[in-house]
Amino acid sequence: MDLPKFLLADNSNFPEDIFVLHTEFPRFLINLKDDEVEWFEDLTGENEEDIATELADLMNKAGEFYDEEMKQYN
After folding, report:
1. Where on the tree of life does the source sit, at the highest rank (predicted)?
2. How many whole angstroms from its chain centre is CA 43?
3. What distance in Å separates the CA atoms of residue 43 and residue 19, rounded to the nearest whole number?
4. Is the Cβ–Cβ distance between 10 and 3 less than 8 Å?
5. pTM as predicted
6. Whole-angstrom Cα distance, residue 19 to residue 22?
7. How far is CA 62 from CA 13, 16, 44, 45, 47, in A?
């Protein structure tokens, strides 16, 4: 199955939260309400500088994905 790189997620127990799931390595779930991130990968052993840059870029792309998705509802 081909998955999109990002998915929107919600949960009725957290009605004020906005979740974006990144499905490729490194997989993570970000709550855009407070930028809290849950990682699904063990990133130990990775080059810290490289991974920090990549992760910051992916989190920005998650926010951009959400903004583009919301434009479709207006």
Report:
1. Bacteria
2. 16
3. 21
4. no
5. 0.85
6. 10
7. 22, 18, 23, 24, 22
